Amino acid sequence: MRIGIRADGGAQAGLGHLGRCAALAQAFRTLGQRPIFLDVPSGCRPWVRALGFPMGRFESGRWDILIADSYRFGKRDWRALRLQARELVVIDDSGRTPCDCDWVLNGQPFAPELTWKSKRRTSLMLGAKFLPLRREYWRHAGPRRHGGPIKKLLVTLGGGRSALVKGVVETSLRELPKAQVHAVLGPHCAPPRLRDARLTWHHGLASLRPLIAACDAAVS
């Protein structure tokens, strides 16, 4: 089966689109399939490669399943996806299904409450039970209880460029004078000029799971 994925990514779009598509790709991989990420922006290719997925061009023939995740595609893009796909899956956060597709996926808790403008034959996968989670989160260790002071704080504001990072980190250091602050940046971001013995910058991580497990609280 030929499965292709087209997702936004980069300095402005961040890694969210690619990240949730990677979750779907990992699920397909457990079923013996080999999804291919298509037209991946150059700055995101090392991140996709680190997850072990092949990359290619969209123009490489017809696909059994195409998964599309983008806020920036225009009518021409959606038309091309429709023509190339036997089954077209659209990840849509808005409720305004942008094209004629076979499946719509929205894993947000509020998704079932939206008014969906879709074709009669479109199948809707809505709500938190459909939220794509990467493989490292498939096994949940159970609820964590924390009643003491925050000793380690995680700050993660997405994989794109964010003007908020410096201010959030400075505020965290000021308000939690005894905490170690771990700030995560995407592959397209350089650390702000901010140094503190309690601050550690992390750049272009393949997974946040180890830091999530190690920290007492997070700002996201």
Question: How would you describe this structure to a colleague?
Answer:
The longest helix has 15 residues, at 16-30. 30% of the residues are buried. With 220 residues, this protein is an alpha/beta fold. The strands form two sheets. It has a seven-stranded parallel beta sheet with strand order 3-2-1-4-5-6-7. It has a four-stranded parallel beta sheet with strand order 10-9-8-11. It starts with a strand and ends with a strand. The protein has helices at 16-30, 45-50, 75-84, 165-175, 209-214, and strands at residues 3-7, 36-38, 55-56, 63-69, 85-91, 103-106, 123-126, 152-156, 180-185, 199-203, 217-219. The radius of gyration is 19 Å and the shape is elongated. The model has no long low-confidence stretch (mean pLDDT 89).
Topology summary:
Blueprint: E1 3-7, H1 16-30, E2 36-38, H2 45-50, E3 55-56, E4 63-69, H3 75-84, E5 85-91, E6 103-106, E7 123-126, E8 152-156, H4 165-175, E9 180-185, E10 199-203, H5 209-214, E11 217-219
